[in-house]
Amino acid sequence: MIVRIMGEGQVRLADSHLTELNKLDDVLLQEMEKGDGPGFRRTLEALLAKVRELGAPLPDDSLEPSELILPSQDATLEEVRDLLRDDGLIPG
Question: What is the pTM of this model?
Answer without folding.
Answer: 0.90
